[in-house]
From TrEMBL:
It comes from Neisseria elongata subsp. glycolytica ATCC 29315. It holds the Pfam family Cytochrom_C_asm. It comes from the Bacteria. Residues 51-265 form the Cytochrome c assembly protein domain. The chain crosses the membrane at residues 6-23, 35-53, 65-87, 94-112, 124-151, 181-199, 211-228, 240-262. This is Cytochrome c assembly protein.
Length: 268
């Protein structure tokens, strides 16, 4: 698995360099998106097999910081690949590929401690799947929020950067941000409910207010407030983008951040 992870990291790094090369061109209208997606699809197949075959063969899910990071990278890239057939997502890969390389490197260098769970435990699997999908979707949403802040800064400074020809219009980015946020919010709701109110069925022990629970609930309220205000006032601009990033930071602290601290730094 480490050899495969290194190879995939190199492929994603090459894609990152390829995309940034085109971003620096003044006219990116002839960007070869089909070739990029073809390479990405070819990489996601062994990536998916790498994370799915061991649990299916052993009927056991091995969870740790490294494995969770690899799964989130695969889900985010898969969401981008599928979404590219329905939305104009060009520009998202400027941030997505470098982030994927970072997470893959962290997974290689700091795999962390692993815990085994039976995949036949459907209540636990529902919680894990909804959590990982929510993290991945909100990861995409957060990258879109960063692009919104990037374009907003250029517009505020009346500056035309090469990125303007590469990125979608600002209104399209805002619409995509809230659309993906709605889906992520639904998944996060399932995760929070299953992990909080049905903790005994999912984890085999009563609910306790740990840092994971608190940060998950805080992020849920942040996203709920964002979606509520957007529905009531058509809220747009920098502030919702900033709060989207704050919500994702809180969400990452709930699981991935705490996993990194406990398993990698504190070795627990």
């Amino acid at each position: 698995m480490p050899v495969m992870m290194i190879c995939l990291t190199l492929v994603y790094a090459a894609l990152a360099g390829f995309v940034w090369f085109w971003r620096l061109k003044k006219n990116a209208a002839d960007y070869p998106l089909r070739w990029e997606l073809a390479v990405l699809a070819g990489s996601l197949l062994p990536h998916g097999l790498m994370i799915m075959l061991p649990p299916l063969a052993n009927q056991t899910l091995i969870m740790g910081f490294g494995y969770a990071s690899v799964v989130i990278v695969w889900l985010m890239l898969m969401l981008y690949l599928m979404g590219s057939f329905f939305y104009r997502l060009r520009g998202l890969q400027l941030l997505l590929y470098p982030l994927s390389v970072l997470f893959m490197l962290l997974a290689i260098l700091f795999p962390g401690h692993v815990e085994s769970y039976r995949i036949t435990d459907w209540s636990f699997m529902l919680h894990i799947i909804s959590s990982l999908l929510a993290y991945s979707l909100f990861g995409i949403t957060t990258l879109i929020a960063v692009l919104i802040l990037w374009l907003s800064r250029d517009l505020h400074r009346h500056r035309l950067s090469p990125a303007r020809s590469f990125l979608p219009p600002l209104l399209s980015l805002e619409r995509m941000m809230f659309q993906s946020m709605w889906i992520g919010f639904a998944l996060l709701t399932v995760s929070v409910i299953s992990g909080t109110f049905f903790a005994e069925e999912v984890f085999g022990r009563p609910m306790t207010f740990t840092h994971k629970t608190i940060f998950s609930i805080v992020s849920w309220f942040i996203y709920a407030g964002l979606l509520l205000k957007r529905s009531m006032t058509a809220w747009r601009g920098k502030r919702p983008a900033v709060w989207t990033i704050v919500g994702f930071i809180s969400l990452m602290l709930a699981y991935v951040g705490s996993k990194f601290v406990l398993e990698v730094i504190l070795h627990r």
